[in-house]
Structures are given as structure tokens and as C-alpha cells.
Amino acid sequence: MPTECCLTPTPPPKTSRQVRRAQDRRRPAQPEPALNPAQEARGLTEEIMAQVAAKAGAVALTQAELTDAEIQAWRTDLQARLETIQQHPEENLGHIEEALAQASKEILCVWAQRAAQAKANATPCRCHKCQRELTHQKCLRRHVDSRFGRLALWRAYGWCLHCETWQFPADYALGLAQNAAASPYVQEISALLVTKMPPEQAAAVAERLGLKLSRCLLDREAHRQGLKAQARRSETIAQLDTWEGIVQQLGRPAEGSATQPFTLVIEIDAWIIRERDDWGQTKALREQGKEPERYHWVYMGTVFRLDQRGQTAGERAIITQRGYVATRLGLEAFIAQLYREALQRGLNQAEHVLVVADGGLWIWNLAKDRFPAAAQRLDLWHADEHLWEVAHVLYGRGTPEARAWVKPLLAHIRNDESAALLASLTELKPRLLQAQQEKLQREIEYFKNNAHRMKYKAILQARKAVQDGKATPEQIHLANQPLGSGAIESTCRQYQCRFKRTGQFWTTAGDEALMCLETFWRNGRWEELYPHAKSPNALN
Ligand SMILES: [Zn+2]
């Protein structure tokens, strides 16, 4: 847990540990005399009196100020530390940074506590829901784990006759949860760290960054934050269920400016996550005739405008702005989230919509249902893979014969010659054994079903024309279209780096909460959850 801030805000404030330490440096240390029972009792009384005075001082605080003596002691302490570093030639700027951060933490803790206390005191004791004055008002102390250490705050609370709940208006004003000690900054950092790494690692990283947060606190807090993110996501999706919400959404400009007509690209994929909710219940479940569910689909989508897709100097495709969707709450939840994200990214303003995916039937059904006007494209490399499968069955994996056989067929795919491709595959059939014929038939069906989604020729020609410097404006536009769903595949891999580590099993509630947080971060909507945070650069 964070180190507790030593000061309670009494005016005039007690000297801080830092001030006392600075004074002690000048004073020779003296051995502590042993206390007799009478002295101990007196000590206890003094402590109680100090607490009473602390409370009285705290609730009277109106401004967050440091005294001149405190500031002077802080400065003296800083200078002493810096002078020591000057005397050590082996110590570098890192030592200076460390010394300044260490020396400032405590005084900032005192300051934060006073500022929070002054804000709490200025908060009217009214219900934050109905704004009515609270009855049975009392005052209670609580602790908060903040960026600078543990703070102790006194705040008024009372009963709302209308809402029939006890309320702590200052907690609400300060952004504190009733049953969790984390300050808004600690809430945010817990969420950020645990979405990127397991809590054990997060605790170590946080400590290095000057935040002493236990593994347990990080885990619990990140989960709580994930639930908050999920609630926020549900709210925005629920807006689409109301007429006002739809009108508002339709009237909104798409994220990012669009002065020219644009194409909106939607890429979709899915992967499997391991969950342990049914652990230890296998026998019981099987007796009920149910099979334990340990593996679940995580559905993922990404949405971006074609004019926001470009190339790096090294010719790597980059997308400057894109929306993400990730959920393991089932296909229906995914569709609702994806549709909401597509609207946000300009579904209604787009001149063309293109859905690109690897060929799962559920994806095309989804596209037909939710994006009926969208063009559909099968990922080119998945089409290739299916042909290679046939080549391996016929001639063996990695053989020159397989390569020779597949080459003209790959060319058929690139020339939009589906009919020729199907004819070549069908011709093969009589030459094959029964088992091989069945496999081939499956591939024939695959290419038949996807024939209208395999239109690559114009794009490849446009890319060639761009390379040769002979492209028309239409070709320049077309060359930028994706041939495959690489953007979503790489996103899936990035999520898997956190959610699919070796030996890792999740609970249903746990993985969804964290995935939701990660998606807020990537979508550049972090400040919706943490208004104090400046908008981070979304990871694109
Ligand atoms: Zn109320």
C-alpha cells in the first residue's frame, strides 16, 4: 500500500516528516527515554487530542497552502541532496532526477491532502443525483491512495430522503469510489498498467515509477475500472436504441476531418481465449449433460477511412486514425459495438463501405445484415492459402511440383479469373482418390461462394501504375485499398500478446473488463473514463 502521508491538515499545520527530518539533520540524535504507565497514558490522551484537533483543523481548511517554514525546509532538503550528488563524480543526471522526485514526494503529499481537503470542505452537502440537501449530516475520515502517497480526508455525509441512500458528496466531487481507496490518478494508472501487463509486473513497474501499489490493489482496481469502461460502452450503445440518440449520432461529424468523399473500411476477425470459469466443475457439469466451456471466441473489428491509410518511407502500410472493437460477449454484442464504432468513424458520411475479412461465413452474414450496401472482399492471402492446401494434398508440402501447379492458379486469382480457377480445380477431380476428392470439393465450394469477393486485378494494376508513375487519379485512390485484412490480424495479435500468454487462463468477467479498457485506450477515448488525463496518442 502507498506510504501514508504523515500530516493531518491542522492550521497552523504540524511540521511534516520531511521538515522534521531536515531539522533532525541539524540536531544530534538522542536516545529515546523509556516511558512509565503514567507517561504512556498521557501520550495516549495527547494522541486523541491531536486527532480531535486534526479533525477540527481539517474541516476548517479553506485553502491549500504550505507555510513558509515548510517551503524553506523543503528547499534546504533539496539543496542538501543535490550538494551530496555534486560531491560524487560517479552520480549522473539520473541521480539528480531521483533525488528531486524523492525529496518532493512528501511535500506534494501534504499539499495534495490539503487541496483535496479544501475541495471536500467546499462541496455542498447535497445529493449528487437529486441535488436535495442531505439530512443527518455527520463527518467521517477516509484514506485515499494518491499519486503522492496515502492521504487522510475528513468529509461530510448524510442521508438523502428522496433517493434513500447515504451519500458522501465530497467523494463524488473528488472522483473517489465509496469502497476503493484509489485516487483518480491511481485508478487510471492501475487500468493502464494492468491492460498492458500482468499485475505482478505492473506492481514492480509502478514501484519503479514511484507508486507503491500492491499486486492485489492493481488487480482489483483495474477490474473495477474495466467494469466502469464496460458501463460507459453500454451507455453509448444504448443511445442508438433511442430516436434522439440516433438523430444525434447521424448529425455528428465523423472522427477526423473529411473534406473529400471517402471509403470506409471495416475489417473483421476472431480468435480464441481460454477461460477457467468452469474449472473444478467438469464432473458436475457433465453429469448435468453439459460440456464445460473453456474456450471462447473474442470477436474483433477495426474501422478506418481509406484516406487515413498511407505508407511509411519503408513502404509499410500505416493507418493514422482507426477505431477498434474487441469483445468476448458473443456475436450479438460484437455486432452492436462494431456498428456503433462504424457510425462514429463516418458510416453515414462514407461514399463507399468495404468489408474485408478472411472468409468466415458469420462475417459475411454480419456484413449483409448490418452493412448491406458495403462491398465485400476476401483476404487475398487466405485465398492463396486455400490453393496451397490443394497443392500440398496433390504433390506434397514444399515440393517443386506443388509450386509449379499452384503458380498459374495464383495468377487466376490475381486476374479476377474465378471461372478459369474453378474450371482448373474441377478438371482435377477425376484424377483423385475419394478422400482427396472430398477435400478438393470443399475448396471448390469455398472459391464458388467467395467468387464475387475476389476482385483484386484493378487494385494490383493501380499499384503497378503508381509504381511506374503512370497512375490516373482514380488509380491512386484505388491503389490504397487493402487487398487483405492484415490490419485486423495484426490487432488480434497485439491483443493476444496480453490475453493469450502461456499458461494464462481468464475469467469471463476478468478478460472482458480489461479488453474493454484496452479498447478505450486504443480508440483515443481514455479521457472519457479519466477526464483528468490528457488525450493520449491512440496506438495506431
Ligand atoms: Zn437524492
**Helix count?**
21
What proportion of the residues is helical, as a percent range?
Answer: 40-55%
Strand order of the largest sheet: 8-5-4-9-10
Reported for the largest beta sheet, the result is:
5 strands, mixed
Arithmetic mean of pLDDT = 86
What secondary-structure arrangement, pairings included, does this model have?
Elements: H1 17-26, H2 37-60, H3 68-87, H4 93-122, E1 135-146, E2 149-160, E3 165-167, H5 169-174, H6 184-196, H7 199-208, H8 215-238, H9 243-251, E4 263-274, H10 282-287, E5 295-305, E6 309-311, E7 317-319, E8 323-327, H11 331-344, E9 352-357, H12 361-370, E10 375-378, H13 380-395, H14 400-414, H15 418-428, H16 434-450, H17 457-468, H18 473-479, H19 486-499, H20 508-522, H21 526-529
The protein binds zinc ion.
Residues 127, 129-130, 132, 160, 162-163 line the site of zinc ion.
What does this structure look like?
The protein is of the alpha+beta class. Among the domains are: 17-26 and 42-181, no CATH class; 252-379 and 484-506, no CATH class. It has helices at residues 17-26, 37-60, 68-87, 93-122, 169-174, 184-196, 199-208, 215-238, 243-251, 282-287, 331-344, 361-370, 380-395, 400-414, 418-428, 434-450, 457-468, 473-479, 486-499, 508-522, 526-529; strands at 135-146, 149-160, 165-167, 263-274, 295-305, 309-311, 317-319, 323-327, 352-357, 375-378. Strand 9 (352-357), helix 12 and strand 10 (375-378) form a beta-alpha-beta unit. Helix 7 packs across helix 8 (215-238). Residues 1-14 have low confidence and may be disordered. Zinc ion is lined by residues 127, 129-130, 132, 160, 162-163.
